[in-house]
Structure formats: C-alpha cells, structure tokens
Amino acid sequence: DFLCISLVNGFIQLRYNLGEKTVVLQTFQRVHANGNTWHSLKAGRVGNEGYLDLDSINITQKATPGMNALDTHTDFFVGGVSSLNLVNPMAVENEPTSFTGCIREIVINNRELKLTVTDPKGGANVGDCDGTECGYTVCKNNGTCQVENSGFSCSCPQEWTGSTCEQSIHCSQNGCGSQGLCIPQPTLSSYTCVCALGWSGRYCDRKINFFIAKFIGNSYIKYTDPYYDKRDLQYSRISLNFTTNQTDGLIAWIGKGEDEDNDFLAIGLANGTLKIVINLGERISVPLIHSKYSTCCDERWHFVTVIQNQTCIKVYLDEELILFEDIDPHRKYTALNYGGICYFGGFEFGREVNIVTTGLFQKEFIGKIKDVVLFQDSKKVQLMKAEGYNVYNGNYRN
C-alpha cells in the first residue's frame, strides 16, 4: 500500500493504492514555477475515495470497491527518499526525482509535523527556505514578527505577551506553581490553575492521594500499560466502577487515539445509556448500545466489564450480560492493538472528545471512576501513578 503526492509536468498528482488498483488524481491547474507564490495543498482519502485540493479547487475520485484502509509500515518521507528502492513504481509517473522548492505547514491527520533540525527522524540537503529569523510561525497568536540585527522581535496583540506572544497577559504573573497549568479567564481578567494528577488547591500546592478518581470536566488520566508487550491482544478485558449524574461522557478509551487508523475500545455514555465502541482495524468502528438500560446516570455505582474474544464482544453491566455480539464473523481483524495507552475521562488539553472520537462521544466524563482492572490482572490499575490533570479525590461523598 502507498499514498504519494508529487509534482508532474507542473501538475500536482495524488496516487494511492489500498491493495488492489492504483488511483491517480491530478489537478486541473498548473503550479507556476516562479518561486514567489505559496500554494495551499490538501490531499487524502476517506475510505477508498481520494481528494485533491489545490488553492481551493477540489477534485475527488473513488477507488475500486474493496479495501478501505491504508496499510503502511514504512517511514514518512517529505521532499524525497533516502533510497529509490523505497518508491513503489506505481507511485510516480516517471523515474522518481526529489522535490526542489519550499514546503511548510505539513499537517497529517490534524497533527502538524515539525520541520526542524531535531524533530524529524533524519534527512539531508534541506535548508532554511524563509531566509530570515522570522519564519512563518515564530510569533504565536497572530503576533507580528520583525527582523532585527540580533534576531527577531514580536509585536503582540493586546491579550498576549512573551518573546513569541506565547503567554496570555492574564497568566504572566500566575501563582500556579510547577504542578499547575495556568488557564486564562479573559472575561474575568484573571486565571485559574488546573492541577496535575496528585495535586489540588487553588494554586496546585497541596499533595493529595486517592483510590477513587473524581472527574469534574476538562479532566483526564492517561495510563501506560507496563505489561502491553506481554498481552495476548486477541483476548482483551477491562472492568471498572463508575458513577455520574450526566447522560453523556467518555469513561474510558483504550487506544492511542492519535489518528484514525489506531485500534481502540471505548466505554462511555450516550443519552443516558451505556455505549461501547470497538475498532480492530480498517477504521470500522462498531458501536454497541443497549437501549433498555437508562439508569447509568443515577449517581449510583455501576460495574461494567467489556470482554473481547477475537471478534466476539461481551458487555456486562452490574454483573448482567447486556450485550453479546460478533462484530466480524469473517475474523479479518482479531487483535486489539491499543499501543499500551488507556485514557480515562477524556484526552489532553486541546484535544476535544468529539474530535478525537470522530463524534462517537460528545463530551468528557463528569463523575467518579474506581477499581479499574485490565485483562486478568490480579491488581487494580494504580491511577495515581499515571499522568493527567484536573482529577481530584473522590474518596468522599462530595
């Protein structure tokens, strides 16, 4: 499989192959080689339908029905490759040649690649294209960059300060300390401190410990499974207790959640009922909802267990089997490759639940979680040893 974007005789081409036939899309307009004009290019695919957009002129095309996923196991190359042997002959029209020009602002699945000296895995013969100290994103938050003898300076909008306009004026004198994040509150001309896991207080200066995690919204815990490499991923299991008075929310997301190709198993609430979603491959997300149960938001403790036996899914709520389904009788994908990452309550700041889950869940969890057990482990997950923010002591009834 491959996906390749190239410049051919002045036209932009997108070529991709999902395992059967190569699809080729080409722009209607040429890219003029004057070296002075930046062009905006968007390309990709949804299932087997590809799209190519050059300066807001869009074309789309569907591949032959069949495979829907891009199965790639190589590095991602920009501008050229380290060896021509890595280029699939169907990925280019003629003999492959490296790109000559400037590239910036590369965004892959909503994540920007940092085209710096240190961030890429490797490279060669790449220099500074802007030619000045300013670049294109030196000054943040719409700041204006000016080249000076000593480098550059940023002229910041009224609400921002710092050498690169990176800090809100409301957080410039914050007292959040090393265990807190300052969140500006412009309407109040103030700020609030969001505390790291294990800390609380107005300025996140009070150490806390708990065995029941309380999520208040805009909260999350990210747990890395130390036994992931030893797991049999064809037979997964997770159980936990939760309580809430909300009708919607993401309770747990077992998976990296970095892009649309990641496997995952998710537990949450939708319209007051328990909702389970699992994806074992090809971005085919199978939601399982038991509509008879609408008591999940009654502020009582509920015990949920989800068992994945290859493609057979069992869901227990309060020790009663409520769902039993084979999501793929053909057994095409049978393992939950979750990367050893488990999220509880939500995701990191700036990663909205409805965006990361592509609308499967609408908001973060508000409530309490305890007694999390993965697989058949004899010990519960020690949530306090994970990372996270805005999670508090739920040991007491408050």
UniProtKB/TrEMBL annotation:
User: Which SMART domains would you find in this protein's record?
Assistant: EGF, EGF_CA, LamG
Q: Does the UniProt entry include the keyword Calcium?
A: yes
Q: Which InterPro entries match?
A: ConA-like_dom_sf (IPR013320), EGF (IPR000742), EGF-like_Ca-bd_dom (IPR001881), Laminin_G (IPR001791), Neurexin-related_CASP (IPR050372)
What is the disulfide pattern of this chain? C102-C129, C156-C165, C176-C193, C195-C204
Entry keyword Calcium: yes
- GO BP annotations listed: developmental growth
- Show the Pfam families listed in the entry: EGF, Laminin_G_2
Protein's name in the database: EYS protein
